[in-house]
Amino acid sequence: MMPVATVMPDATPMFDPNLLRELDWSQNTATFSPAISPLDPGGGLVMRPLCTADINRGFFKVLGQLTKAGGVSPEQFIKTFEHMKRSGDYYVTVVEDTNLGQIVATATLVIEHKFTHSCAKRGRVEDVVVSDECRGKQLGKLLMSTLTLLSKRLNCYKITLECLPKNVAFYKKFGYSVSEENYMCQKFFN
Question: Tell me, what's the pLDDT at 2?
Answer without folding.
Answer: 46
